Amino acid sequence: MAEITVNLPQGAYGIHIMPGAIQRIGQLMRNLGMQGMALVVSDENVGALYGAAVLHSLTECGCKAELICVPPGEGSKSLGVAMELYTKAVTMGLDRRSPVIALGGGVVGDLAGFVAATYLRGVPFIQIPTTLLAMVDSSVGGKVAVNHELGKNLIGAFYQPRLVVADLDVLSTLPERELIAGLAEVIKYGAIHDTDFFNYLNRNCAALMKKEEGVLTEVISRCCRSKAWVVEQDEKENNLRMILNFGHTIGHAIEAETDYTGYRHGEAVAVGMYAASLISRELGLCTSQTVEAMREIIQRFSLPLTARECSPERLMTFLKRDKKSVDNVVQWVLIQAPGEVVIERGVNEAVLRSVLEQIT
Ligand code: NAD
Ligand code: GLY
Predict the structure, then answer these.
(1) pTM for this one?
(2) Closest approach atom of ligand 1 to CA 152
(3) Pocket test for ligand 2, best of 224, 245, 246 (most atoms within 8 A of CB)
(4) What is the DSSP letter of 9?
(5) Residue 174 CB: number of other CB atoms within 10 A?
(6) Which domains, from first to last, does the chain contain?
(7) Which pLDDT tens digit goes with each residue over 299-320?
């Protein structure tokens, strides 16, 4: 069991990591003074598995809660689905003090968070992440969004949750491919600023793949601590927070080019991290040893290094639209050594093309 606090000027919030945590959600909310009503948003897979347990815990603590399930998958991160959730909130009479609770992976967290941020100009938001990726990354830090057909996460806000509850037990039903995809974001934390963690992951790969409770608790809490450390210094991504986008620039382009169906988000990020190391070597920022270290860890966790279905040309088109561009120049997070990254404005087009050819 672990508890981590994220301290921000508008208030602090806790991340509770433990087996069986969803049975305590009602109590944890009551401790924060939240009772009344709640809208629980989930997807059809997760809602069927854990919706009843969450509703039970909330009802036991005097909360009048309703569950709404959206179809699983990236397609639900849309303004159309958000509109259905607003309608549900209005018809059930959700008021300004009533929380929206996200029960699911990053898709549900981003969607429900976007609705919480905008319904009645903002209602309390609670995250119950159910994928590894959501536990270590998307449920912490307040980025919420839906997609636009021209790009991912283009419509969103920074809106922090009031509480994050990560129940290790729910990982027992998580498909292996989803667990592995989440491990890409885990590797990212080691790569961007924690060499010791990078080495820990290399040593504990087998235990992690077997979902051993002690290693999972250690890994999730280290990632959440890292994320909290970054977000506390730069909540709105003016500088330091950009390092969390390591691997995401090319990763997002791969996801968009494959219509958000070819690759899990984490898989695309793994290819993106490897590509970023190749770019870094081309630019003289790192040695071949660093590229090898990235290649080895990505392969050790059965993650992909290439996206053969993609074309360099089309990836270039998506890269030019990257939402992290400033004055149309993409902000790249590049690697110097495992645990050390640097932000570079723009990358020479010939270098980029040559790396895109290697990974496609
Ligand atoms: P996801 O939400 O699509 O979930 C993956 C699949 O696993 C779904 O089919 C879901 O139904 C199923 N599932 C989830 N938990 C389960 C469980 N415990 N048991 C059985 N099945 C379960 O995928 P994800 O990888 O969690 O999230 C990806 C999304 O997160 C992307 O949209 C990405 O942009 C976003 N993201 C956001 C941030 C952020 O900071 N806001 C960070 C990283 C990623
Ligand atoms: N996942 C990137 C961020 O939260 O900033």
Answers:
(1) 0.96
(2) 34
(3) 245
(4) T
(5) 19
(6) 2-173 (3.40.50.1970), 176-359 (1.20.1090.10)
(7) 999 999 999 999 999 999 989 8
Ligand 2 geometric centre to CA of 137 (Å): 7
DSSP characters for 43-109? Answer: EHHHHHHHHHHHHHHHHHTT-EEEEEEE-SSGGGSSHHHHHHHHHHHHHHT--TTSPEEEEESHHHH
Q: From 115, 132, 265, give the residue whose CB has the most ligand 1 atoms within 8 Å, as the site to mutate.
A: 265
Active site residue 241: yes
**Ligand 1 centroid – CA 105 distance (Å):** 3
Distance 107 CA to ligand 1 centre (A): 5
Residue pLDDT, tens place only, 161-185:
999 999 999 999 999 999 999 999 9
- Residues of the chain below pLDDT 50: none
What CA–CA distance (Å, rounded) separates 318 from 153? Answer: 13
How far apart CA 114 and CA 218 sit, in angstroms, is 29
User: Among this protein's residues, is 143 annotated catalytic?
Assistant: yes
Question: Quick one: CA dihedral 321, 314, 337, 350, positive or negative?
Answer: negative
Q: Are 133 and 100 in contact (CB under 8 A)?
A: no
Minimal-distance CA residue to ligand 1 atom 17? 174
